[in-house]
Amino acid sequence: MTIALIDYGAGNLHSVHNALRAAGAQGVMITADAEVVRRADRIVLPGVGAFRACIEPLRAIPGMIEAMHEAVFQVGRPFLGICVGMQLLADAGEEFGRHEGLGWIPGTVRKFERDDPAIKIPHMGWNDVIPAQPHPLIVQGEGYFLHSYHFEVESPEHVIATSDHGGPLVAAVGRDNILGVQFHPEKSQAYGLATLARFLEWKP
Q1: 90 and 105 in contact (C-beta within 8 Å)?
Q2: Listing from the earlier edge strand, what are the strands of the sheet with 107-111?
Q3: Which of 86, 108, 141, 202 has its CA 20 to 30 A from that of 185?
Q4: Which of 17, 54, 83, 99 is catalytic?
Q5: Overall CATH class of domain 3-201
Q6: Tens of pLDDT along 63-119?
Q7: 135 is a catalytic site residue
Q8: Are the beta carbons of 166 and 100 closer than 8 angstroms?
Protein backbone atom coordinates (compact mmCIF):
# COMPACT_ATOMS: atom_id res chain seq x y z
CA MET A 1 0.00 0.00 0.00
CA THR A 2 1.33 3.42 -0.96
CA ILE A 3 0.48 6.56 1.01
CA ALA A 4 1.11 9.82 -0.82
CA LEU A 5 2.09 12.55 1.64
CA ILE A 6 1.79 15.68 -0.45
CA ASP A 7 4.83 17.95 -0.36
CA TYR A 8 4.04 21.59 -1.08
CA GLY A 9 6.32 23.02 1.60
CA ALA A 10 4.12 22.44 4.66
CA GLY A 11 6.05 22.78 7.90
CA ASN A 12 4.74 19.59 9.50
CA LEU A 13 5.55 17.32 6.55
CA HIS A 14 8.32 15.25 8.14
CA SER A 15 6.65 14.95 11.54
CA VAL A 16 3.53 13.61 9.81
CA HIS A 17 5.73 11.18 7.86
CA ASN A 18 7.32 9.93 11.07
CA ALA A 19 3.92 9.59 12.77
CA LEU A 20 2.52 7.58 9.86
CA ARG A 21 5.49 5.24 10.08
CA ALA A 22 5.04 4.94 13.85
CA ALA A 23 1.36 4.11 13.25
CA GLY A 24 2.41 1.17 11.09
CA ALA A 25 2.44 2.63 7.58
CA GLN A 26 4.61 1.09 4.93
CA GLY A 27 5.27 2.76 1.61
CA VAL A 28 4.85 6.39 2.70
CA MET A 29 5.99 8.60 -0.18
CA ILE A 30 6.68 12.30 0.36
CA THR A 31 5.85 13.65 -3.07
CA ALA A 32 5.15 16.71 -5.17
CA ASP A 33 4.48 14.49 -8.22
CA ALA A 34 0.86 14.57 -9.36
CA GLU A 35 1.17 11.14 -10.97
CA VAL A 36 2.30 9.57 -7.69
CA VAL A 37 -0.73 11.09 -5.97
CA ARG A 38 -3.02 9.88 -8.74
CA ARG A 39 -1.82 6.27 -8.30
CA ALA A 40 -1.54 6.23 -4.49
CA ASP A 41 -3.74 4.00 -2.33
CA ARG A 42 -4.20 6.73 0.30
CA ILE A 43 -3.54 10.46 0.34
CA VAL A 44 -2.52 12.74 3.21
CA LEU A 45 -2.47 16.54 2.96
CA PRO A 46 -0.55 18.15 5.86
CA GLY A 47 -0.47 21.85 6.64
CA VAL A 48 0.52 24.53 9.12
CA GLY A 49 0.46 28.31 8.91
CA ALA A 50 -1.75 30.58 6.84
CA PHE A 51 -4.45 29.41 4.42
CA ARG A 52 -3.10 31.48 1.53
CA ALA A 53 0.48 30.35 2.16
CA CYS A 54 -0.70 26.74 1.76
CA ILE A 55 -3.27 26.87 -1.05
CA GLU A 56 -1.07 28.92 -3.39
CA PRO A 57 1.95 26.53 -3.46
CA LEU A 58 -0.41 23.55 -3.65
CA ARG A 59 -2.09 25.03 -6.73
CA ALA A 60 1.34 25.83 -8.19
CA ILE A 61 2.29 22.15 -8.47
CA PRO A 62 1.49 21.14 -12.06
CA GLY A 63 -1.54 18.85 -12.21
CA MET A 64 -1.72 18.31 -8.44
CA ILE A 65 -5.24 19.59 -7.79
CA GLU A 66 -6.56 17.59 -10.73
CA ALA A 67 -4.75 14.44 -9.56
CA MET A 68 -6.11 14.83 -6.04
CA HIS A 69 -9.64 15.31 -7.33
CA GLU A 70 -9.42 12.30 -9.63
CA ALA A 71 -7.99 10.00 -6.95
CA VAL A 72 -10.49 11.07 -4.29
CA PHE A 73 -13.71 11.59 -6.24
CA GLN A 74 -13.37 9.27 -9.22
CA VAL A 75 -11.33 6.41 -7.78
CA GLY A 76 -12.45 6.79 -4.15
CA ARG A 77 -9.08 6.77 -2.40
CA PRO A 78 -9.14 7.52 1.35
CA PHE A 79 -8.01 11.09 2.02
CA LEU A 80 -6.85 12.75 5.25
CA GLY A 81 -6.29 16.49 5.67
CA ILE A 82 -4.45 17.70 8.79
CA CYS A 83 -4.80 21.17 10.38
CA VAL A 84 -4.54 23.64 7.47
CA GLY A 85 -4.73 20.58 5.23
CA MET A 86 -8.23 20.19 6.65
CA GLN A 87 -9.03 23.88 6.24
CA LEU A 88 -8.08 23.78 2.55
CA LEU A 89 -11.09 21.51 1.99
CA ALA A 90 -13.34 24.56 2.53
CA ASP A 91 -14.83 26.76 -0.17
CA ALA A 92 -12.65 29.65 1.01
CA GLY A 93 -10.37 30.95 3.72
CA GLU A 94 -10.35 34.51 5.04
CA GLU A 95 -6.78 34.73 6.33
CA PHE A 96 -4.93 37.65 4.68
CA GLY A 97 -7.88 38.26 2.38
CA ARG A 98 -10.39 35.83 0.94
CA HIS A 99 -8.88 32.90 -0.96
CA GLU A 100 -10.58 30.05 -2.77
CA GLY A 101 -10.12 26.60 -1.24
CA LEU A 102 -10.63 23.16 -2.74
CA GLY A 103 -14.39 23.30 -2.18
CA TRP A 104 -14.68 19.66 -1.10
CA ILE A 105 -16.52 20.46 2.16
CA PRO A 106 -18.85 23.48 1.94
CA GLY A 107 -17.92 26.21 4.41
CA THR A 108 -15.48 29.01 5.17
CA VAL A 109 -12.35 29.25 7.32
CA ARG A 110 -12.64 32.31 9.56
CA LYS A 111 -10.69 33.91 12.39
CA PHE A 112 -11.61 33.03 15.94
CA GLU A 113 -13.92 35.62 17.46
CA ARG A 114 -14.23 35.27 21.24
CA ASP A 115 -15.67 37.96 23.54
CA ASP A 116 -13.95 36.69 26.67
CA PRO A 117 -10.39 38.13 26.87
CA ALA A 118 -9.41 35.12 29.00
CA ILE A 119 -9.81 32.89 25.92
CA LYS A 120 -6.39 32.95 24.32
CA ILE A 121 -5.97 32.97 20.55
CA PRO A 122 -4.38 30.99 18.99
CA HIS A 123 -6.11 27.91 20.35
CA MET A 124 -3.01 26.01 21.43
CA GLY A 125 -2.56 22.83 23.41
CA TRP A 126 -4.53 19.75 24.37
CA ASN A 127 -8.30 19.73 24.07
CA ASP A 128 -11.17 17.26 23.84
CA VAL A 129 -12.18 15.75 20.52
CA ILE A 130 -15.88 14.98 20.84
CA PRO A 131 -17.53 12.87 18.12
CA ALA A 132 -20.55 14.62 16.59
CA GLN A 133 -21.63 11.47 14.74
CA PRO A 134 -20.29 7.93 14.39
CA HIS A 135 -17.18 7.69 12.22
CA PRO A 136 -14.68 4.83 11.94
CA LEU A 137 -11.68 7.13 12.39
CA ILE A 138 -12.81 9.42 15.22
CA VAL A 139 -13.31 8.46 18.85
CA GLN A 140 -13.53 10.51 22.04
CA GLY A 141 -10.12 11.64 23.24
CA GLU A 142 -7.67 14.51 23.49
CA GLY A 143 -5.86 15.99 20.52
CA TYR A 144 -3.22 18.68 20.24
CA PHE A 145 -4.45 21.89 18.56
CA LEU A 146 -2.61 24.93 17.22
CA HIS A 147 -4.66 27.37 15.13
CA SER A 148 -6.07 30.91 15.03
CA TYR A 149 -8.65 30.26 12.29
CA HIS A 150 -11.41 27.69 12.34
CA PHE A 151 -13.61 25.93 9.80
CA GLU A 152 -17.23 27.14 9.84
CA VAL A 153 -18.93 24.21 8.15
CA GLU A 154 -22.08 24.90 6.15
CA SER A 155 -23.92 21.64 6.87
CA PRO A 156 -23.98 19.69 10.17
CA GLU A 157 -23.79 16.44 8.18
CA HIS A 158 -20.14 17.22 7.45
CA VAL A 159 -19.18 17.85 11.09
CA ILE A 160 -17.52 14.67 12.39
CA ALA A 161 -16.22 16.01 15.72
CA THR A 162 -16.17 19.18 17.78
CA SER A 163 -14.10 20.74 20.52
CA ASP A 164 -14.54 23.78 22.76
CA HIS A 165 -12.40 26.87 23.17
CA GLY A 166 -14.58 29.57 24.66
CA GLY A 167 -17.36 28.15 22.49
CA PRO A 168 -17.78 25.23 20.10
CA LEU A 169 -15.43 24.69 17.17
CA VAL A 170 -15.12 22.03 14.50
CA ALA A 171 -12.42 19.45 15.25
CA ALA A 172 -13.04 17.13 12.29
CA VAL A 173 -14.95 17.26 9.02
CA GLY A 174 -15.75 14.58 6.52
CA ARG A 175 -17.82 13.06 3.77
CA ASP A 176 -17.59 9.68 2.05
CA ASN A 177 -13.86 8.86 1.76
CA ILE A 178 -12.67 12.29 2.97
CA LEU A 179 -11.68 13.18 6.52
CA GLY A 180 -10.08 16.37 7.81
CA VAL A 181 -8.89 16.94 11.38
CA GLN A 182 -8.10 20.30 12.94
CA PHE A 183 -5.92 18.72 15.62
CA HIS A 184 -2.43 17.44 14.86
CA PRO A 185 -2.31 13.62 15.02
CA GLU A 186 1.49 13.80 14.72
CA LYS A 187 1.59 15.78 18.01
CA SER A 188 -1.25 13.98 19.78
CA GLN A 189 0.78 11.04 21.10
CA ALA A 190 -1.17 7.80 21.56
CA TYR A 191 -4.50 9.33 20.50
CA GLY A 192 -3.00 10.71 17.30
CA LEU A 193 -1.16 7.51 16.38
CA ALA A 194 -4.36 5.51 16.93
CA THR A 195 -6.22 7.92 14.63
CA LEU A 196 -3.58 7.46 11.93
CA ALA A 197 -3.63 3.68 12.40
CA ARG A 198 -7.38 3.67 11.80
CA PHE A 199 -6.86 5.76 8.68
CA LEU A 200 -4.41 3.16 7.36
CA GLU A 201 -7.07 0.48 7.77
CA TRP A 202 -10.03 2.59 6.62
CA LYS A 203 -12.16 1.12 3.82
CA PRO A 204 -14.85 3.73 3.13
Answers
A1: yes
A2: 99-100, 92-93, 107-111, 149-153
A3: 108
A4: 83
A5: alpha beta
A6: 999 999 999 999 999 999 999 999 999 999 998 889 999 999 999 999 988 777 778
A7: no
A8: no
